[in-house]
Amino acid sequence: MLELLRKNNVVAGLLAVIRLYLGYQFLHAGIEKLTGGGFDASGFLQGAIASATGEHPAVQGWWATFLEHVALPNATLFSFLVMWGEVLVGIALILGLLTNFATLMGMVMNFAFLFSGTVSTNGQMILLAIFVIVAGANAGKYGLDRWAMPFLRSHAPVKKNHKKETAAV
């Protein structure tokens, strides 16, 4: 199954469709926030913190503590990160550029929304993203990764093999 996900051209086409869907979802959400007239995450953050109380809280206490003491005091920064994170992840996924990194960052955002008590399509998006991550380079085969990844590999610093050096000693 892993070999099929990572090597098959038909699967690469299906992964491109999944990638385009995820990219559209992120880009659409980010553009709505950017053009909607002053997106502010503080109301969402306060709602998530309030959902951490009661007999069956929707938000775990540790996450509510993070939201209350880190995210809420920096709501302007978090609003900026959400808006532009969604836009950049969306563009990268649509173009198939740095696909695995963009997918991972999208998953981080989806998990943050889930941890904050929002269900929506986040679970579905995480499930689809898992296939993209597991497929590795095959997920970006029909995208800009086809050229970008070989370029980046050819310009990456060369790693020394320490096993050979220690074996000779």
Q: Kindly provide the radius of gyration, computed on alpha-carbon positions and rounded to a whole number of angstroms.
A: 20 Å
Through-space gap between termini: 42 Å
Global shape: elongated
Which stretches of 5+ consecutive residues score pLDDT under 50?
A: none
Oligomeric composition of the shown chains: single chain
State the helicity in percent bands.
over 70%
Please identify the structural class as seen in this structure: mainly alpha
Structure, described:
It is a single chain. Helices cover 72% and strands 0% of the residues. It has 169 residues and is an all-alpha fold. Helix 6 (99-115) packs antiparallel against helix 7 (122-135). The chain is elongated, with a radius of gyration of 20 Å. The N and C termini lie far apart (42 Å). The relative contact order is 0.17. The model has no long low-confidence stretch (mean pLDDT 93).
Brief sketch in words of this structure:
With 169 residues, this protein is an all-alpha fold.
Fill in the keyword field for this structure.
single chain, 169 residues, mainly alpha, 9 helices, 0% strand, elongated
Secondary structure layout plus pairing:
Blueprint: H1 2-7, H2 9-35, H3 42-50, H4 61-71, H5 75-95, H6 99-115, H7 122-135, H8 145-154, H9 162-168
